[in-house]
Amino acid sequence: MDAETLKKELSRSQQVIDITTTGRVTGKPHRHEIRLHIAEGQLYITGSVGGSGKETGPNFPRDWYRNMVATNAFILHLKGDVRGSKESIADFNATASPLLDPEERRAALVALLANYGHQDELDLRVAQAPLVQVTLGAEL
To answer: Which domain, by its residues, includes 93?
Structure first.
C-alpha cells in the first residue's frame, strides 16, 4: 500500500493507529495507541492539551512526542479496521517532523480543527498540543 492509497483508506475509516518510537533514554522500542489525522493531504499526529498536570507546550512531556523529537524515525502500525478486517495489520517506516514554529503550528491546526471540530481551542492547541507531521516510508 503506498502513501496515497493509505490516505484514501484512512479518510474513510478508523484513524486510531499504533506507533512504535525509540526511547530517547533507553533506546528500546515503545508502542503507543494514538490517532492519525489527515488535513490538506498531509498526515499529522497530535495530542490533547493539559490534563496530565505536567508542563505543556510544543516540547510537551509525553513520551511518544519526546521520543519523536529525539529520534524522528518510527514505525506506524495500521489497525485492522483500515483494511476492513480486524486481523489485517500493515506496518510502515515513517518519519516525524515536529512542528515547533507557532505559525506552522497554527496553519496545520487550523486545517486539522476544520476537519475535526474544536476550533474554539485553536490558540490553546497552538500553545500546548504536541504536533508532528508524518511522512510515510516503505511498507514493512
So the answer is: 3-139
Domain count, the chain: 1
Task: Render pLDDT for 75-117 as a digit per residue (tens, 0 to 9).
Answer: 998 876 555 544 447 889 999 999 999 999 999 999 988 877 7
Place of cell 499529522: 44
The reported pTM is 0.82
CATH number at residue 76: 2.30.110.10
CA distances from 85 to 18, 71, 88, 109 (A): 16, 32, 6, 31
Per-residue confidence (pLDDT) for residue 55, from 0 to 100: 52
